[in-house]
Write a structure and sequence with these properties.
2 helices, Alpha-Beta Plaits, alpha+beta
């Protein structure tokens, strides 16, 4: 199962980042993993490389975490909201393979 965790910042409704972990199916052969990974890389690259937003990112096999730093959170709002919507739609299609959770990150 893939778990997608979205972080809000300091009690606000604004998303401050996300963390994705896990795999579905056979590694390298799952369309669900590919869809989740592709969307997350698109969001991370847009936030960090295209928009130049200050963020901490870490990636390893089956894991990606991106946290936007402080004052840059509003700049990433639309990208993170789009990723959330995309993941919610994938959950509707694959409810046994993806789980979304929400938590707070303190900055």
């Amino acid at each position: 199962m893939v778990t997608v965790e979205f972080y809000s910042a300091n009690g606000s409704d604004d998303l401050a980042g996300f963390c994705v972990s896990g795999h579905t199916g056979v590694r390298g052969e799952s369309i669900v993993c590919a869809a989740v990974s592709s969307a997350c890389y698109m969001a991370a690259n847009t936030i960090i490389e295209i928009l130049g937003i200050d963020a901490e990112a870490s990636v390893s096999d089956g894991y990606m975490r991106v946290i936007v730093n402080g004052d840059d959170i509003p700049k990433a709002r639309v990208i993170l909201a789009g990723l959330r919507l995309h993941m919610e739609q994938l959950v509707k299609q694959y409810p046994k393979q993806i789980k979304i959770i929400f938590s707070e990150v303190h900055q």
